[in-house]
Design a protein that fits this description.
The complex is a heterodimer of chains A (635) and B (307).
Chain A: E1 2-4, H1 8-30, E2 34-35, H2 39-48, H3 51-54, H4 56-75, E3 78-80, E4 86-93, H5 106-120, E5 126-132, E6 136-138, H6 150-157, H7 168-181, E7 186-193, E8 211-217, E9 225-228, E10 237-239, E11 243-252, E12 258-266, E13 269-278, E14 282-291, E15 296-305, E16 315-323, E17 326-331, H8 335-345, E18 353-357, E19 368-371, H9 375-379, E20 389-393, H10 398-404, E21 415-417, E22 439-441, E23 447-451, E24 457-464, E25 467-472, H11 488-503, H12 512-515, E26 526-528, E27 534-535, E28 545-551, E29 558-563, E30 566-572, H13 586-598, H14 608-632
Parallel strand pairs in A: 4-5, 4-7, 7-8, 10-16, 17-18, 17-19, 19-20, 20-25
Antiparallel strand pairs in A: 1-3, 5-6, 9-28, 11-14, 12-13, 12-15, 15-16, 21-22, 23-24, 24-25, 26-27, 26-30, 28-29, 29-30
Helix pairs in contact in A: 1-4, 1-14, 4-14, 8-11
Chain B: H1 23-30, E1 42-46, E2 51-61, H2 73-79, E3 83-87, E4 90-91, E5 94-101, H3 107-129, E6 133-140, E7 144-149, H4 152-164, H5 177-184, E8 189-194, H6 200-211, E9 216-222, H7 225-228, E10 236-239, E11 246-249, H8 254-276, E12 279-283, H9 290-298
Classes of the chains: A alpha/beta (635), B alpha/beta (307).
Chain lengths: 635, 307
């Protein structure tokens, strides 16, 4: 048995010899013979020549072919005798970065390379395979290496890019340990990876005695990555005349400072173009405040531009719903009460309601009026406006008086039951901290806004002409709800909710800000709900955040939508820098390659075919050269 | 044979027009005399046999059968010896031009054959001027014969035949020389124009047949320079136009070996001619002018010039 360490030189030599022979035969066939009358004299002269000189041209050609074949055979490092067995382990990196590129992803290329490596190994060689994704999957979990190829093929077919960084470092150490247990003389460890940054450390060679580590890169790692993390603001809804801030988080994974431009577009129109300096390996928050003059949904887009070095779809989309402000005037009442109402209806509850003292604007500028104090006093100036008036009847004592003021006679229609201490309001979570000492009765003629846990109405709104009366029960000791500091926080929320409920459909609803932070394009991404079910069309749950990683060099990238601690949507955008940690050092790769080159692994176990081919070609050349000579000796 | 291996079709042969002979050339050759002839008529060529005429040649003892009229009375009176006074005879010449029209003469656009035709044409003119008879025998694919004759009409027929002939045919043409020998039996001179490229055994058998007729022979070997010193420094396939045989040869040493073979072949022809008193001339169309050929022949020069 003759084997070659390098099977290609003999094959190449055979091919060259075949080409030489073919060219010789073709030229010989195509050459037109020269007319020469004194051929008998030439034949006689030829006979007079020594045999070696007569066959000189053929011998030259034969020796040339033989030299080419011999050189090829020698370059192949032939070995006589049985080839030594090899124990090999193939580590295939299936981390996230290897999945970029679709059909041409690193995982697909790695699978092909792994299949080639497995096919190159002899049947008697022992081999094991491990996929290094989030975890390590071994074809032979409990054995160093095996002889059957079936589990290897099945494992290869199941290779898919995982999430996050690969566990290559752990697999490398494990593979070394497994190879150390094998009795074979030659031990080879193939590492198929893009050698992108991951959690694997820069493993030095010395701990690998007797093991040839063959790095098989499948893609060229980007030299300088820029990763940008974009996160939309939670409340992507705003009121007119208010600002809505969209914040974008840019994280530079590179070891060098980067200068990028952040371009903002609203409904396709560029509104801002910010230059952002990103320090190395840092997170920079870049925000932009948008304000709107007209109500409606505005679709926005943030795009990171790094000159020509950041190609691809590196954008994040969001939508902002701008709603009209419902302006409410606060009439009457003590200054403290008015301030409390303004606070409750203004910023704290984030309602689309602007509450201001009625004295600040003309009465026609208000959509509704709230009586902060005595109803008669409060509504005295706004009765003629025709706008809704909200009257808080916080105490039973005020009710008859308020009704007696002629707004609408509803006397005796309901009553507060004072002996109701300790009950809590059911529908309104904001009322959980407010203890109501009384409850309303006779509420059938009004709209119940809230009930107590036993079902009794806690707050009732009753429309009367232009006014809306909101009643809620308060005990006598709680009559100073709006003024006592200890009730301030609860009262703000309580009153705000009551106003929102009382106004009902007259106040626009903030939908976007409560449901989703960002709107993602549908075309390129797959979405999964937290339970793992795919959502299509996409509906990103509340609290989702996105992360886009962009490379400096052209290549695949990643767009991820995170929910809590997992990715619910992912799509390749451009290159895929996984993490910000440095990649495997170039020096380590060079050391591995040189070590692998010293111990060539690729061998053709059976060299009989090249040898037979060479012998056949030689015999054919000899026959072709000899045949015309015999024909010449004819007549 | 594949089509690309077939020899190129011979180019359309231009009509072979023999040049009109220059008077100066005729005058130049008019003084030349062929010393041996056996014509039946008196002419200007010296006969091979002695006779009785006014031009003394030698004395010979009287032999029975000699005409007693030619006994030299003076010698008889002085020395009482019977001697016969012989004189040099001059007679006419019957010449047969034997032209090799095999395919080998077609080489290089019939350069050899055209040269042979021109040489024969000039020789015929010289003979015609002297009143000698001349005929033509062509051995090629077919043999053609023009019996000896003289006069303008015969010369025109001779010229037309030379202009018509195409060199074709293979090596079997040598066998047709038997008929030439029969034709030559009644003549006194045969001029054989050929390249003499043939197997030695058949060639010399044919030449011996011609020699046995008793006629004087002139062997004119026509070879081009490419046949004398061919370029054999590289390996190539060569084909014999007569037999179609192919031979791949060439390389170092071939030129020297070929020159030795060709020289040996010429030496054999020269030896054959000398032994029989014939004239052998090895002619190169690029070197030897036709008129000089006849000068050399008529003056009895034989052999070959230095190539």
């Amino acid at each position: 048995m003759v084997s070659f360490d390098h099977p290609w030189p003999p094959l190449a030599a055979g091919a060259i010899a075949a080409l030489m022979l073919a060219a010789h035969l073709i030229l010989r066939l195509l050459a037109r013979p020269v007319e020469f009358p004194p051929l008998p004299w030439l034949r006689e002269a030829r006979r007079a020549l020594p045999r070696l000189r007569r066959r000189r041209a053929g011998l030259h050609f034969f020796f040339a072919i033989a030299a080419v074949l011999l050189a090829g055979l020698l370059c192949g490092h032939p070995r006589i005798g049985a080839a030594p067995r090899t124990a090999a382990i193939v580590l295939l990196d299936t981390s996230l970065s290897m999945g970029a590129g679709g059909a041409d992803s690193g995982v697909a290329a790695g699978v092909r390379r792994a299949a080639e490596i497995l096919a190159d190994l002899a049947d008697e060689d022992r081999v094991n395979l491990a996929l290094c994704g989030a975890g390590v999957r071994w074809a032979y979990p409990s054995a160093p290496v095996g002889l059957e190829r079936g589990p290897l093929r099945r494992l290869l077919e199941s290779a898919a890019p995982g999430h996050g960084d690969g566990a290559l470092a752990a697999a490398l150490a494990d593979a070394i340990a497994r190879l150390a247990q094998t009795p074979e003389a030659e031990k080879t460890l193939y590492v198929i990876s893009d050698f992108q940054a991951s959690s694997w450390a820069d493993v030095p060679l010395p701990p690998f005695p007797g093991v040839a580590v063959v790095p098989v890169p499948v893609t060229e790692p980007p030299e300088d990555n820029v990763a940008v993390r974009l996160r939309g603001r939670a409340a992507a809804a705003t009121c007119l005349d208010e600002g809505c801030e969209i914040a974008v988080e840019l994280e530079n994974f590179a070891a060098v400072p980067r200068s990028v431009r952040l371009k903002w577009r609203l409904d396709g129109r560029e509104t801002a173009n910010d230059a952002v300096e990103l320090p190395p390996r840092s997170v920079t928050l870049a925000g932009r405040v948008f304000s709107f003059a007209a109500a409606g949904v505005v679709r926005g887009e943030a795009e990171v531009l790094g000159g020509g070095a950041l190609p691809g779809d590196d954008r994040v989309f969001f939508s902002i719903e701008a709603a009209a402000t419902f302006r409410v005037g606060i009439a009457g009442g003590a200054p403290v009460t008015r301030a409390m109402l303004a606070r409750a209806l203004g910023g704290g509850a984030r309602l689309p309601i602007a509450a201001e003292p009625i004295e600040l604007r003309p009465p026609s500028a208000f959509d509704a009026v709230i009586a902060a104090g005595a109803p008669r006093e409060a509504l005295e100036g706004v009765q003629a406006l025709g706008v809704p008036c909200i009257v808080f009847a916080a105490a039973p004592a005020h009710l008859p008086a308020a009704l007696a003021e002629g707004m609408r006679a509803e006397r005796g229609s309901f009553a507060l039951e004072a002996a109701f201490e300790g009950n809590s309001v059911r529908e309104l979570p904001a009322l959980a901290g407010v203890r109501l000492a009384a409850r309303l009765s006779g509420a059938a003629r009004g709209e119940v806004l809230a009930r107590f846990t036993d079902g009794a109405p806690a707050a009732i709104a009753r429309p009367a002409e232009n006014a809306i009366f909101v009643f809620f029960g308060l005990g006598a000791e709680a009559g100073d709800l709006l003024t006592r500091p200890e009730n301030a926080e609860a009262a703000v929320v309580f009153i705000g909710e009551l106003v929102r409920l009382a106004l009902g459909g007259r106040v626009p609803t903030l939908r976007v800000g409560r449901e989703a932070a960002l709107a993602l394009p549908r075309r390129a991404y797959r979405f999964f709900d937290p339970a793992g079910e795919e959502i299509f069309p996409p509906a990103v749950p509340a609290g989702a955040r996105t992360r886009v990683t962009l490379p400096a060099a052209p290549g695949p990238g990643y767009f991820e939508v995170w929910h809590e601690d997992r990715i619910i949507a992912a799509a390749p955008v451009n290159p895929p820098p996984e993490e910000s940690r440095p990649a495997v050092g170039a020096a380590t790769l060079a050391r591995w390659r040189s070590a692998a080159a010293e111990r060539p692994r690729a061998r053709a176990r059976d060299a009989a075919a090249p040898l037979l081919c060479a012998l056949f070609l030689t015999a054919l050349a000899w026959l072709c050269l000899a045949a015309p000579r015999r024909m010449d000796d004819g007549p | 044979m594949p089509f690309w291996k077939r020899p190129r079709a011979p180019e359309t042969r231009p009509p072979r027009t023999l040049p009109a002979l220059d008077d100066r050339v005729r005058h130049r050759l008019r003084g030349a005399r062929r010393r041996r002839a056996d014509g039946r008529f008196l002419g200007r060529h010296g006969a091979r046999f002695r006779g009785f005429s006014a031009h003394f040649a030698e004395y010979r003892p009287y032999a029975p059968g000699d005409d007693p009229r030619f006994l030299d009375q003076r010698v008889l009176a002085r020395s009482d010896r019977d001697v016969v006074k012989l004189a040099r005879l001059e007679t006419t010449l019957r010449c047969i031009f034997i032209l090799d029209a095999t395919a080998s003469m077609r080489f290089r656009n019939e350069a050899k054959f055209a040269y042979a035709c021109r040489t024969a044409h000039l020789g015929a003119a010289v003979l015609d001027d002297a009143g000698d008879a001349f005929g033509l025998y062509v051995c090629g694919a077919e043999t053609e014969t023009l019996p000896p004759g003289r006069g303008p009409a015969h010369r025109e027929a001779f010229t037309a035949m030379l202009e018509r002939i195409e060199p074709r045919g293979g090596p079997d043409a040598l066998r047709g020389l038997d008929r030439a020998a029969a034709l030559l039996r009644g003549a006194s001179l045969g001029i054989l124009l050929s390249d003499f490229i043939a197997p030695d055994r058949e060639l010399f058998a044919a030449l011996n047949a011609l020699s046995d007729t008793g006629a004087d022979l002139g062997l004119f070997q026509v070879l081009l320079a490419e046949e004398r010193r061919p370029a054999l420094d590289h390996d190539a396939e060569r084909v014999d136009p007569e037999t179609g045989a192919r031979l791949r040869a060439g390389g170092p040493g071939y030129a020297e070996a070929y020159a030795a073979v060709a020289a040996r072949h010429r030496a054999a022809l020269d030896r054959f001619a000398r032994e029989r008193g014939f004239v052998f001339l090895s002619l190169d169309p690029g070197v030897d002018a036709e008129v000089s050929v006849w000068e050399r022949f008529l003056e009895g020069e034989t052999g070959q010039r230095q190539w």
